[in-house]
Every structure is written in C-alpha cells, then in structure tokens.
Amino acid sequence: MSLRETITIDYLNNGGSSVLPGQLGIEMLSLEEGKLTSRMKITHNHLAINGYLHAASVIALADTSCGNAALAHIPDGAKGFTTIELKCNHIGTLREGTLGCTATAVHLGRTTQVWDAVVYDEKTKKNIAFFRCTQMVLW
Prior knowledge:
By secondary structure, the protein is α+β, with helices and mostly antiparallel strands.
C-alpha cells in the first residue's frame, strides 16, 4: 500500500491541532511508506496522581501515531478506518522530557492494517512502551 499524496505532515499536524492530539502537544515529525515518527513533550497534564507519566498519555501518543500512519496508507476508494483492537506493554516511565514514537506497518491489507509503535525517551532512547493496534478499513 503506498502513501496517499494528500496526507502530509502539515496536514496531520494542522488537522490534529484543535482535537486531542493538539491538546496533548503531540507533533508528527516524519512520514514515509510504512513508517511515521512523532513526539510529545511531557507536561504536568501528562502525569498521573503519583507524579509519573500516565499510561493513557503514552497510549494517546502511540495510537495517534499509528492512526495517522493508517490514514496515510488507506487504499484508494476507502472512506476511512477505525481501530478494532489495541494493546500496550509499558516497560518504563518518565516524569519530564520528551517522548518519541515510531510507528511501523506490520500489515497493510485492503480490509485491515496492523501497526506497531515504540514509545521511547527522546533523550536517552530508553524504551517506555510497545504498542500494537489493528485498524479496519471502511469502504
């Protein structure tokens, strides 16, 4: 499945600016066939009551990245997509800094897509979470 020419980094960042990704400060960085990179600077709003990164913040970054990548790769003629399953293994945490995320295509079919994402500390490159989601292509 090749990239849709109309889906660019500017399109994704502008489209996400007034909805949840924008509220969380999620920024798309690069998009190529089968891959998207992004990041999110950690603020107080991303933390849980215990002062550590909230799992939902990590999932929001990974899911947004995979979702935007899926949007850029849906087949011609498809109307969109929807998430049918997601899973996240959290193996670390942060209190400050910036999270990076790399979403990579595992399967790009006509009816489903599977995406993996790795969320990591941008400064140390230490992995924070491993994420996988399945998208159903809508016709």
